[in-house]
Every structure is written in structure tokens, then in C-alpha cells.
């Protein structure tokens, strides 16, 4: 078990560019979550996948954001036409859902995005 | 809008001191979790509390869940420099398809100095 991995760890981009982040969950985990964390705040939920199906999206996820999990394994989060307000840490978490109504989410190290 | 308020926001103490961090919610969640996050890393789960009035201990850390399941506290005894980090509480709530959405608190940044 290598844990949740995210790539890249850091991304610096210019305003207006598109960026894509990748998350590799713990193998066999069918649930995958994306969160966004700005400086000095706790993470905020963005979206949730069960296998390849995206089942829940936050209103924080504007139409410039799109997430996919095409084969139910890794996931990508794309931000189009980045804005300075998109600067944040983007966290991915996965879980097995095997505990019933409570669930332990394992977080990756995050991708820190800086939009200049 | 953060539904979970933590206090204090910042705490700087000397090694060996005791401290308590509070987490207050305007809503009831199915469970409440405490995480610790170090710079440049994701949050790591410390404990999950489920039942009102529940108390859990993890070495020098004691977690308490309020009777109404809206507030929680984390008490650290004899703090050590290795306890330094961002402490986050998070309320867990079920969502579509069986997933569980976490709503995080505002965080408490703890620094323990020698």
C-alpha cells in the first residue's frame, strides 16, 4: 500500500492557462474525493466519485473545473482559464467505503497551485 | 461558509504544557473526525467520534464529543515539539451514492517550543 499519490506536487502557471492534476488513489479504493484548501483554512469539498461515476459536485466547482475518473482508478482535475483566485492546495482522498456509515478518507500530499 | 468553528485559531506553548482545542458546529453530523496536517502534506486522521458524550484517548491526546453531537474538544497533555501542526476537526455526512462528505473546521495552528 503506497498511499494516495498526487502529481505534480507544485504547479505555477500564468493566469488564463489550463492546468491538469492527477490523483492515484490507494488500490482497491472505489471512492475518490477532491478538496481545495486555501491558506489558513480547512479543506473544502469539491467533488466525489464512486468508481468512474461522478456522483456529487460542490457549487464551488465552477464550469471552468472538470474532474474525471475514466476507469475507476486514477482521477484528473482540470482547471481551464485559471484565475488568481484558483491558487490553493488541491487535495485528493480515497476510501474503501467498507466501514458502513462512517468512512476513513486517506489524503494525498496535495498539489499546490500558484496562479500568477 | 465554514459550519465548524475552531478555537483558538493559533496556539504557541512551551513543551510540557497542556492545551485544549475546541470545535463547535451549527449542525449535527453523523460523526466528527480530528485530523493533523503538517506543512506541504495532506491531513492525517487521528480519531473518529460517533456517539454523544464519547471520550477517546490516543496516548497523550484525549478527544471528547459533546452530548448533542455538535461540539468536540481535543486535549493534549504534556505537549511535545512533535505535536506541532495544524489540527482540523471535520464533520462527516453521507452523500449520494454512499460517499461521505467531510466539512472541515477553520483549523488550529499549534506550535510547541522547547
Please tell me about this protein's structure.
In chain A, the strands form 2 sheets. In chain A, strands 2, 4, 5, 6, 9, 10 and 11 form a 7-stranded mixed β-sheet that branches. In chain A, strands 1-3-8-7 form a 4-stranded antiparallel β-sheet, with no helix packed on it. Chain A is built from no helices and 11 strands. Chain A is an all-beta fold and 116 residues long. Chain B is an all-beta fold. In chain B, strand 9 and strand 10 form a beta hairpin. In chain B, the strands form 2 sheets. In chain B, strands 2, 4, 5, 9, 10 and 11 form a 6-stranded mixed β-sheet that branches. Chain B is globular. At the A-B interface, strand 4, strand 5, strand 6, strand 9 and strand 10 of A face strand 5, strand 9 and strand 10 of B.
Helical coverage of chain A, percent range: under 10%
User: Main β-sheet of chain A: number of strands, strand sense, barrel status?
Assistant: 7 strands, mixed
**Number of H/I helices of chain A:** 0
Strand content of chain A: over 45%
**Largest interface pair:** A-B, 31 and 29 residues
Describe the global form of chain B: globular
Report, as a whole number of angstroms, the end-to-end distance of chain A: 36 Å
Rounded mean pLDDT score of chain B: 93
Quaternary structure classification: heterodimer
**Alpha-carbon Rg of chain B, integer:** 14 Å
Please state the structural category of chain A.
mainly beta
Please provide the ordered H/E string of secondary-structure elements of chain A.
EEEEEEEEEEE
Please describe the biggest sheet of chain B, giving its number of strands, its sense, and whether it closes into a barrel: 6 strands, mixed
